[in-house]
């Protein structure tokens, strides 16, 4: 098998896109972006396939043919014994659209398995589920990011944008320069909060009640956009009835946000016209995450925001291809273009593009955590192939996940470095990274952008597309899997045609010429859709749905034994599981820490920098204390970039999105003796 570079291989990206004029980041990168080339040619890069020696237990170099023959042979054996679903796939939101699409097709056609899901389940799934229910479609931002600059008021609900999307935070600064106001809702006063006009610090996991309380005040004050609600939505009356009982003092008891603060916030919201509500992981990564987003969407609709210029609701997407990665088939229930596997017409269409019998396609499989939880059990898969995720570090209740991975007959990991998950694998396959391959990504605005290959990959390294194709061939798949990204993209366009995320009119040429193209874009003559919902929503009758949601509270309330809320998140200098950023020497890597308020620290006899033990019902972690006045007294925070933090987190899942409750569980902290 040979690596096939994209057609414009070697052409410097600068000639393709005038970056400084690119409206999303204006050529700006964050610290991780500037240093990311550090992994190129680094000794940390994997450059040869590795196969675990059964006798010594060590990973040893193998040729690509040996490794792929072995993987295909073991897959065939496992499927003979345990059925097609004996083999599972775990994908990633960092993969290009071409890879994500090809991975979904590989699972359903070459493996015939229903068992595929991906790390986006940890990421935007709650917002995706809520957006689909309310609007009939899920697109992170239904408007360009630069619209933020023209808003009168931006509400950031659980986003630390200044650390997690620094180039995007410039738009926020300009919004304020233009006279707009910014509200940050976060249990911590983050660097994003430092740029805000108003900071609201709720108890973790109570954003839902905050939204209900605001809607209560909007209705009580007579500020509902009645004309909009009547002409563009369904379900308002039931929602209005349900929030009647959420008067400010009751909201205060749940959220810790005072009744006065809530009233002031409501006054601000109703006195401004262009209000933008943006949620991120702080509000979404909860077992009530999808209901929380529904509640904020109800508020947005009652105010008549979605579709109004420079206003509305958006979800701040996570990974590089967090948006595209969730559209084209690596989700357990999904076919390309946001089509659903259970829909006979969708199966017919996509099977037609693929050249297979629709009846041969499996049905929906398990969601990400349920899949990991089932590995190696009697009813669960016996083999797992991982593409683009470091699951032992980033999954909730990680000790359990590690146990499940250890119980597998076969673990295959495709990665660029020896991640903690790769280190557990039976077979490790070294793949190309961003600059070394061509492919498209869809950003948080629904803008499809093209990243051309700029440099040659290290010798011995192949693309994920090569791996998929090589395995499919060895598994005697009924169809072939192209390794040429542009060819795959053209096929993706046909497969997505007529779907909600319709790419049929998008080509590599157009992306280059137009600074990206926004989906839906059903034909080459269509201009693409930067702003959605201006006239209608994506439900068949064009109206949005409002939803009654109830306050359920967090899955694991605090008690005498575990009296503190533990929340987790990110810091500027590290990325996700740290697999890439910890290997870049220019980035500070101080390890995990536990942030706590001086009042709590004093009560526990802890000084800044002291080693502490934080424990939950699932595990313990030792880390230095970081004593800061910016966090709530009842809450502690740890970044999840280092192994061990997720041994503490709760695997309670949201019933609709299957999102785990990363953002809150009950914890105890003590000084180390
Ligand atoms: N530096 C850096 N940037 C990144 C990443 C990274 O790993 N490092 N990862 C990327 C990815 S994949 C994603 S998904 C995004 C995530 O981007 P963000 O969502 O901005 O990041 P987080 O730090 O996970 O969470 C944001 C904030 O939520 C707060 N929070 C915790 N619990 C609650 C709660 O119950 N309610 C509210 N309102 N807030 C709460 C935390 O204190 C935190 O400041 O970042 C992307 N950018
Ligand atoms: N406690 C806690 N846990 C969390 C979160 C949280 O806020 N708190 N956030 C969650 C969120 S939002 C996310 S998105 C996840 C992310 O967590 P992970 O899914 O673990 O994400 P990464 O660390 O980016 O892992 C990606 C892996 O893919 C490799 N890789 C990079 N490019 C490629 C490629 O092109 N092909 C292949 N095959 N591999 C590649 C990288 O080297 C790395 O090992 O973590 C989740 N976990
Ligand atoms: Mo994410």
TrEMBL record:
GO terms under cellular component: membrane
Record keywords: Iron, Iron-sulfur, Metal-binding
A Pfam entry, by short name: Molydop_binding
GO biological process: respiratory electron transport chain
GO MF term (any one): metal ion binding
Residue ranges of every copy of the Molybdopterin dinucleotide-binding domain listed in the record: 564-666
Domain (Molybdopterin oxidoreductase) ranges: 45-474
Top-level taxon: Bacteria
Record protein name field: Molybdopterin oxidoreductase family protein
